[in-house]
Inverse folding.
């Protein structure tokens, strides 16, 4: 499929006077990257993340960052309610460049809905030429939670998804059990690995141009064990590229909405017979809206990164039912239901706020993907390369990260990349921040208060596949940036020791902090859970970045 019309903010024919402040800011970032106009429309695809490791130092290309959401539900999901046009319009309103519609696996969806949905996907692409609209699936992983699966547009995109849904979905097959006491756990876990390998084979054969998988809300129920997540990654790391670092349903704990026990992300569960028994009770909560696996410095995400292998994080809306929205589900005609149609009736406006936990796509949660051109495959290449950072509440307009040897004069490597150095070499981590240029959808002008640099040793593959701690990962630098406006660069000196390592970033508005889960020596001022029923998400916003790896020669 050909690439789409450039987004408004990247189109030279649109004057700056016709852009809002966010669009002007994004255009400025694009110009500084040297990718404005034809250079962005026709530029080469992003190079693989590993390319910069081929020699000493390294120089990744300049990037533009496209904003997206890979987890969105419509009337083709049995528990959602919105049409494609409603969600695409919301994505455009809140500045999304790309969207993935991920309907739940379901018997009605598999038999009827996916094909009908594809017709609407094609219409949505034609009606929204400045957005990249992917068709995807929310896969019920055998023995585990959910995953986003999506393919590049092409003649087999819907066939791939329907074949996959029928052959590998844990819900449809009855392969859902994965607890330690369940007789079929080993079979079911193996089927999940087989499924990811099957997707990789379809890409290798050219049946589809590309396909990606991301684990959704991994610790919501505690049923995605560390060994399962490693197994999925290792089955096809070019396909199974990461997980939601922060779930959707970020409006679930707005005071007065859902009750006194509500938590952001709807992370309100307790360990069950299906949960992996090695997770502590604290793992079932969000921290600053982020999953415990991501938010715990030295925790599960870091334990996977400490193997020296990229595993990306994302954030998204998981849009089902929007907070304060006034639409309800439509009424079924006589004799119809989801199982025999694969589609809910279109919603009806009531003018009265309805129950909901989610935000519109792009309204609160944003995943930023670094690309060198505009298009579907460029977004997927950027995700695979790990050129990803996330923010909540529109905390930042832009972030550019470069790590370089002090003896080099180039740009250095960026998020998801690898820098090869010698023991003892001096390095500089350049963090270029562009602060928020306009009030967010809650009419708050976000202000970044601090930037944290997190460093962890790379020790190679773990002996215990259920390990969830990285003991040598900690916050090594915190920069107070309160009051700074516009675009500025923080320069952080680093030294290569005798071990390979990685660095990653996070920061927040500074409103809610406390000692991290693994103690003050690891994370003295990290995100913490909010009180039950009192989790205003707009008052506790964070950004996170993917890592940059440093390979020390001889390590």
């Amino acid at each position: 499929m050909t690439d789409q019309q450039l987004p408004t903010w990247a189109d030279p024919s649109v004057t700056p006077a016709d852009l809002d402040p966010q669009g002007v800011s994004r255009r400025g970032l694009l110009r500084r990257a040297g990718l404005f106009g034809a250079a962005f429309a026709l530029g080469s695809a992003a190079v693989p993340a590993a390319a910069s490791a081929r020699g000493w130092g390294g120089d990744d290309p300049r990037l533009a960052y496209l904003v997206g959401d890979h987890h969105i539900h419509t009337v083709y999901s049995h528990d959602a309610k919105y049409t494609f046009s409603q969600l695409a319009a919301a994505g455009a309103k809140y500045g999304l460049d790309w969207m993935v519609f991920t309907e739940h696996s379901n018997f009605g969806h598999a038999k009827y809905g996916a094909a009908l949905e594809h017709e609407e996907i094609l219409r949505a692409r034609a009606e929204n030429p400045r957005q990249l609209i992917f068709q995807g699936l929310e896969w019920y992983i055998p023995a585990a939670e959910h995953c986003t699966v999506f393919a590049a547009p092409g003649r087999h995109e819907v066939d791939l998804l329907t074949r996959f849904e029928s052959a590998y979905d844990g819900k449809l097959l009855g392969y859902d059990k994965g607890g330690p006491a369940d007789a079929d756990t080993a079979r079911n876990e193996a089927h999940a690995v087989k499924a990811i390998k099957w997707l990789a084979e379809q890409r290798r054969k050219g049946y589809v141009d590309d396909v990606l998988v991301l684990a959704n809300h991994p610790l919501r129920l505690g049923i995605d064990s560390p060994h399962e997540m490693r197994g999925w990654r290792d089955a096809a790391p070019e396909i199974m590229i990461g997980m939601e670092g922060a779930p959707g349903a970020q409006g679930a704990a707005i005071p007065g909405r859902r009750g006194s026990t509500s938590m952001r992300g709807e992370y309100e569960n307790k360990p069950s017979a299906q949960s992996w028994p090695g997770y502590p009770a604290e793992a079932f909560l969000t921290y600053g809206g982020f999953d415990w696996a991501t938010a715990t410095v030295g925790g599960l995400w870091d334990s996977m990164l400490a193997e020296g292998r990229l595993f990306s994080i994302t954030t998204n809306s998981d849009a089902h039912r929007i907070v304060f929205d006034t639409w309800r589900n439509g009424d079924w005609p006589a004799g119809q239901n989801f199982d025999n149609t694969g589609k809910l009736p279109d919603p009806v406006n009531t003018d009265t706020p309805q129950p909901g936990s989610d935000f519109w796509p792009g309204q609160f949660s944003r995943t930023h993907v670094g690309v060198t051109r505009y298009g579907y495959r460029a977004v997927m290449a950027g995700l695979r390369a790990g050129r990803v950072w996330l923010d909540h509440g529109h905390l930042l307009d832009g972030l550019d990260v470069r790590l370089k040897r002090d003896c080099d004069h180039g740009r250095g490597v960026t998020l998801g990349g690898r820098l090869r150095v010698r023991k003892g070499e001096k390095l500089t981590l350049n963090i270029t921040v562009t602060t928020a240029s306009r009030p967010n959808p809650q009419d708050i002008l976000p202000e970044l208060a601090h930037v944290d640099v997190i460093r962890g040793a790379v020790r190679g593959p773990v002996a215990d596949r259920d390990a969830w701690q990285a003991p040598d990962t900690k916050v090594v630098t915190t920069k107070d940036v309160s009051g700074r406006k516009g675009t500025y660069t923080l320069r952080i000196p680093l030294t290569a020791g005798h071990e390979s390592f990685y660095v990653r970033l996070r920061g927040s508005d500074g409103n809610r902090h406390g000692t991290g889960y693994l103690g003050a020596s690891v994370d003295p001022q990290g995100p913490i859970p909010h009180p039950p029923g009192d989790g205003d998400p707009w008052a506790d916003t964070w950004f996170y970045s993917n890592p940059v790896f440093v390979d020390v020669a001889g390590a």
Q: What stands out?
A: The CA atoms of residues 305 and 530 lie 27 Å apart. Confidence is low (pLDDT under 50) at residues 44-54. The longest helix spans residues 107-127.
